[in-house]
Amino acid sequence: MTVTQQAPAVEIDKVAVRFRGKKREVLALEDVTVDVRPGEFVSIVGPSGCGKSTLLKLVSGLLKPSAGAVRLLGGSVDGPRHDVGFVFQRAALLEWRTARRNILLQAEMRGMPEREAAQRAGELIEMTGLTGFEDALPHELSGGMQQRVALCRALLHRPPVLLMDEPFGALDALTREQMNVELHRIWRETGTTVLLVTHSIAEAVYLSNRVVVMTPRPGTIAEVIDVDLADERDYAATMSLPGFATATGRVRELLGAAGGHE
Amino acid sequence: MVETAVRTAARPVARERLVALAERSWRPFALLAAGYAIWWAVTQFGLVAAYKLPSPGATFQAIWNEVGYFAHHTWVTTFETLLGFAVALVLGVLAAVVMVTSAEIEKTLYPLLLFAQVVPKVAIAPLFVVWLGFGLTPRVVVAVLIAFFPVVVSMVTGLKSVDPEMLQLASTMGASKVKTFVKIRFPASLPHLFSGLKVAVTLAVTGAVVGEFVGGNEGLGSVILQANGNLDTPMLFAGLVVLSLLGVVLFVAVEFAEQLLMPWHASRRGETVTVTY
């Protein structure tokens, strides 16, 4: 697929999603338009049930919009897309496979050449600090380690777009900060376009070029906030920068106005 | 419990394993020994007439006297059981796979399966003799019929209990249905399947014996039937003992296969030993 540098990596164009409930239809998303440039890191924050996760499913083609269009890397999305990497809140690892073999599942499913896949897995294991845990089974790993395995698996095929659905939501605060720092570094190293759904305002601002703030159901876009921070970000230093305070303040204000944020 | 407190990450060495095995199994053995002692005492002191309840000594003597005879009939019953179990396993897994691939097929098949399950197999076993003669076939068929249901039910549950996120992930990986089945769905359903197989293997023994009751003159079922007819209670009890042993051995064999195939699952179960058994 040929993609010009100018074309957005992800285009969500006036999308609406209706779910057919038992008694009535539920409008989950309404008139959502977002463009994500190649290599950009965009976070989506919003109250619970505002359709943030639904948005990721639309981009990956796991779900079809009721109205509007979704394009990924210039091509319209009309079925599950194979050129994305997906990370869920739960690591969703196969408990009978070691860390390494869980990562290599991606390669096996795609029929990637074995040697190339093994080499790539080795690189990612090193990059995410999993060295020494390659042969551990999931239940022998901590939550943070499991999520690292899931991240490696999502990155194995060098996807141009990485979709993350509250990937650190189940981790303790300290591990979460560590994972944020590592994700930032990995994003810088790989240059992958990232679309991250999160509940953490600090996480969203620290990691992103732009933060999309959504309203409660039906989910619409309240505002898209440009984060005025350098690309290279030290965690502790970033926390005390005025640009960080401005952005988090604005997001908090919007979510407060939207109501229902916990 | 004690085991969890001292659980270490390293693999236990052989001696530790043996100690652990002894720790786990001394209670059932103690219970078994107590039962045996009561049996012995009751017959020894003449509390029950010998023709109603033979002494343990007489029972084992009966086996010892006819070792060749028992060996032959045990082999026959074992063969019928294993064949029945194997056929039930293959058919059950296939039926489950077909049922989870289509809701329509499941809706069509499930009531039929349930109906086949509620028909008392003991009652229709004589019919199989009429249809299939006095040979091996009707006995194996009864074993298959009895063992089939738990296999299907457990496998369907297993195939349906796969993490939906895992399946979504597979579709973003561009995995074919076959690959998804082989690498995710099937292995994920094994723990469920094996809990069904443990029930199925003991039921297969019952099925084979029921088959032997109604037709043929081979197998432990017919040994018991003949002994009963002759009022030869030591022989009858001998048959029961051997039959019970057969059931236990087959059950343990299935458990062993489970641990061999799913060490990951067995080790997890070890950790949750404090919750329930």
Automatic annotation (TrEMBL), chain A:
| InterPro entries reported in the protein's UniProt record | AAA+_ATPase (IPR003593), ABC_transporter-like_ATP-bd (IPR003439), ABC_transporter-like_CS (IPR017871), ABC_transporter_ATP-bind (IPR050166), P-loop_NTPase (IPR027417)
Q: Name one Pfam family in it.
A: ABC_tran
Q: Which SMART domains match?
A: AAA
Keyword list (alphabetical) reads: ATP-binding, Nucleotide-binding, Transport
Which Gene3D superfamilies does the entry link to? P-loop containing nucleotide triphosphate hydrolases
A single Gene Ontology MF term assigned here is: ATP binding
Which CDD domains does the UniProt entry name for this protein? ABC_NrtD_SsuB_transporters (cd03293)
PANTHER family (alphabetical) = ALIPHATIC SULFONATES IMPORT ATP-BINDING PROTEIN SSUB (PTHR42788:SF13), TAURINE IMPORT ATP-BINDING PROTEIN-RELATED (PTHR42788)
Q: What is this protein called?
A: ATP-binding cassette domain-containing protein
What organism, scientifically named, is this protein from? Answer: Nonomuraea phyllanthi
Lineage, broadest ranks: Bacteria, Bacillati, Actinomycetota, Actinomycetes, Streptosporangiales
